[in-house]
Specification:
CATH superfamily of the largest domain in chain A: HAD superfamily/HAD-like
Distance between the termini of chain A: 32 Å
Helix content of chain A: 40-55%
Structural class of chain A: alpha+beta
Helix content of chain B: 25-40%
Largest sheet of chain B: 4 strands, antiparallel
CATH architecture of the largest domain in chain A: 3-Layer(aba) Sandwich
Number of helices of chain A: 20
CATH class of chain B: Alpha Beta
Order of helices and strands of chain B: EHEEHE
Strand order of the largest sheet of chain B: 2-3-1-4
CATH topology of the largest domain in chain A: Rossmann fold
Largest interface: A-B, 31 and 19 residues
Strand order of the largest sheet of chain A: 10-22-21-20-11-18-19
Oligomer: heterodimer
Number of domains of chain B: 1
């Protein structure tokens, strides 16, 4: 509790004790009034002061004004009717203050909770000075410095490991609990926790530019972008309070006049004034106004804990209405890394064929050559290779161990006049010929991520109508992948600019209320990310471009996270809607009840504080998203 | 030019009022109040001194919510 809250608590206790004691102390008349008045001022002086200041500053209609009018009114009524029932006005103020205290405590608590969730800020960096470790502020470490990270410490800055190996806990960044193994030469990003070994890191970025700073900045500013629901509520509150005040005035004045003038009945001024005051107590808009930003804040906080960074409440809202999800195939559903997935029709052993292929391609840095070299897996002895001739668009011919090796596509085989077997597998096919004899082919393809299929199914379950895959790959490859994964629609052989126009076509086809999300790996797809209703960049650890362009950033490259992000957003929006509906129904029901005189002031204050407590507790639920 | 200020405000509705007040202040191009993180992000019009403008913003905010505080 803060100092302010503690002071409030003391005031509440003192006032409550006084109220109870006054029930047993036999005082009457003026002394009684003075004692009750003292209790009232103890609990309500600040509200009265604020209401007074509001009037002076021409900001009349706020909740302080409502509460002051209602309680002072109740007091005046108790005096004028000589009923001696001063308790009501004081109790209303007391419960109002209890509600306010609870609200400020709950908000403060969840603010602290959420901030703790996002606490990935490193406190210091270790620098070696004359053989001793010294802790310095990460802000002061310049690019290219060597820092030491010991087991259990956070990596303070982005960099490259120059010595040591270890496992990293990236869960604070990605939500992924499996540790990641790193070794010398690997890039490392700030915010991870070093678990096992000592790492020596050469920094590549300043602290302000490091991943951890970027993420913190993003998350902290996220709730500043307001959602439509929040705009609705603040507009609503602006009209609502004055409207209620005038209605209350009308309720106090009109019925008695009508009764007197037209019906010939007694005016009953007291009854109608009381009803009007009750009306004012019910009308406080606090529950609505507090619970909505709190829900969004909790939702964004809970999501970032799971490695889903949402850049604003508005995006969280938009994401919840995502009905179309468009994928850029490479890097999202597939690894974006080419791998040898098969060796067919070969006369030699698989490994021998791969060895020849890798040796023949040893001079090339093409991704295909790289994947061949990787599949071969051993050190390449370049001295075995001579006369390398690269035929652009065809392949390579080279001498390996004195044999003539041709490795390339079907065009190369045709050119050399070697009969070859076509392949029915999907992917890039490398045909091999040794000494002008066909020796089989190697299939290289982009590997589908292990959770892609599951992810598509999860999206459907989360209420996504259609999944669409865009790719620059060959039609056959694309169709095969789409069929494997269960994607609804495929557009293949697209150039990067075609992707934008495809997305635009899809955007024009959908209805206004449905949103289209585009998922990319953040490489080369910034235009599409910005064009879609919601741009989702995945596997974004360390990629600045993606963090800039996207609205939602998935720290992990697991496609299951997309469905999770949508589910989190749905839950959060559901809570927001529940709160709006609950608060409005209870408010309007109580307003009606108090207008006809069924609800008294006690009822009104309990309804007001009760709704507020329920909606705050409900809002905090948005934080719990781990099991979605 | 955009600057972020730490603020102190107790109720969400008052935060909205502060935002309104800040937006209407001369020299402010746009303003956002984030109740949950207790921050005010103010974008100033070109050529205005942020310190002078913020003094007026604080004055305007105090008018709508006497209890608020902006760390300048």
């Amino acid at each position: 509790m803060t100092k302010k809250q503690r002071k409030m608590l003391i005031r509440i206790i003192v006032c409550a004790v006084m109220l109870i004691a006054l029930q047993f102390i036999p005082v009457a008349g003026i002394p009684e009034l003075i004692l009750y008045l003292a209790a009232y001022l103890i609990i309500g002086y600040d509200i009265l002061k604020k209401a007074g200041k509001g009037i002076l500053n021409k900001q009349v209609f706020d909740e302080n004004f409502l509460m002051s009018i209602a309680t002072v009114g109740a007091f005046v009524q108790a005096i004028s009717t000589r009923s001696g029932d001063y308790v009501e006005g004081i109790a209303v103020m007391l419960f109002y203050q209890i509600g306010e205290l609870f609200q400020s405590y709950a908000v403060g608590k969840s603010r602290a909770n959420i901030s703790a969730l996002m606490d990935i800020r490193p406190d210091y960096a270790n620098i070696e000075v004359n053989g001793k470790l010294e802790q310095v502020d990460p802000d002061e470490v310049s690019i290219g410095s060597i820092i030491i990270v010991q087991p259990g410490e956070k990596v303070p800055l982005d960099g490259i490991i120059i010595d040591g190996n270890s496992s990293l806990n990236t869960s604070a960044l990605t939500g992924e609990s499996m540790p990641r193994d790193v070794k010398e030469g690997d890039e490392i990003i700030s915010g991870c926790i070093n678990m096992t070994g000592v790492l020596k890191i050469q920094t590549t970025k300043e602290f302000g530019e490091s991943t951890v700073s970027k993420i913190l900045d993003l998350v902290e500013n996220a709730s500043s972008r307001k959602s439509k629901s929040e705009d609705f509520i603040s507009r609503f509150a602006k009209i609502y309070t004055p409207a209620v005040c005038y209605s209350a005035l009308a309720l106090a004045v009109l019925p008695p006049i009508i009764r007197m003038a037209f019906l010939g009945l007694p005016a009953q001024w007291g009854v109608w004034t009381y009803r009007a005051l009750t009306f004012l107590v019910v009308s406080c808009p606090c529950a609505l106004v507090i619970s909505i930003p709190l829900s969004f804040f909790a939702g964004i906080g809970g999501a970032s804990k799971e490695g889903v960074l949402v850049k604003g409440s508005n995006y969280l809202e938009a994401l919840s209405q995502a009905k179309y999800v468009v994928f850029d195939k490479t890097g999202t559903l597939t690894q974006g890394v080419f791998e040898v997935t098969g060796v067919h029709h070969n006369s030699l052993k698989d490994s021998t064929l791969l060895e020849y292929a890798a040796l023949a391609e040893c001079a090339s840095s093409h991704p295909i050559s790289k994947s061949l070299q990787k599949a071969y897996g051993k050190e390449i002895d370049r001295s075995r290779v001579t006369n390398i001739e690269e035929i652009s668009g065809h392949g390579i011919i080279a001498q390996v161990d004195g044999k003539s090796i041709a490795a390339g596509n079907s065009k190369l085989m045709k050119k050399l006049g070697i009969p070859y077997d076509d392949c029915h597998s999907v992917g890039t096919i490398i045909h091999m010929a040794i000494d002008h004899e066909y020796a089989g082919h190697i299939v290289i393809s982009d590997v589908v991520k292990p959770h892609s299929k599951e992810a598509i199914a999860e999206l459907k379950k989360a209420g996504v109508k259609k999944t669409i895959m865009l790719t620059g790959d060959a039609d056959r490859v694309a169709k095969q992948v789409a069929a494997d994964l269960g994607v609804d629609e495929v557009h293949s052989e697209l150039l990067p600019s075609d992707k934008v126009s495809e997305v635009e076509k899809l955007l024009s086809m959908k209805s206004e209320k449905e949103n289209l999300a585009f998922v990319g790996d953040g490489i080369n797809d910034a235009p599409v990310l910005t064009r879609a209703d919601i741009g989702i960049a995945m596997g974004a650890m360390g990629s600045d471009a993606a963090i800039e362009a996207a609205d939602v950033v998935l720290m992990d490259d697991n496609p299951l996270q997309i469905a999770k992000a949508i589910k989190i957003s749905r839950k959060c929006i559901r809570i927001v809607k529940q709160n709006i509906v609950l608060a409005l129904i209870v408010k309007f029901a109580c307003l009606a009840l108090s207008a006809v005189g069924i609800a008294n002031m006690w009822f009104a204050i309990f309804a007001d504080v009760g709704v507020m407590i329920i909606s705050v507790l409900n809002a905090i639920r948005a934080l719990k998203v781990h099991k979605l | 030019m955009k600057k972020t200020y730490k603020i102190e405000v107790d109720c969400a509705n008052c935060a909205n009022l502060m935002e309104d007040a800040a937006r209407k202040t001369e020299g402010v191009a746009s303003a956002t109040v984030n109740f949950m993180t207790q921050k005010m992000i103010v974008e100033f019009e070109d050529g205005k001194d942020s310190k002078d403008v913020m003094k007026n913003v604080l004055k305007a905010c105090k008018k709508v919510e006497p209890d608020c505080e902006i760390e300048l």
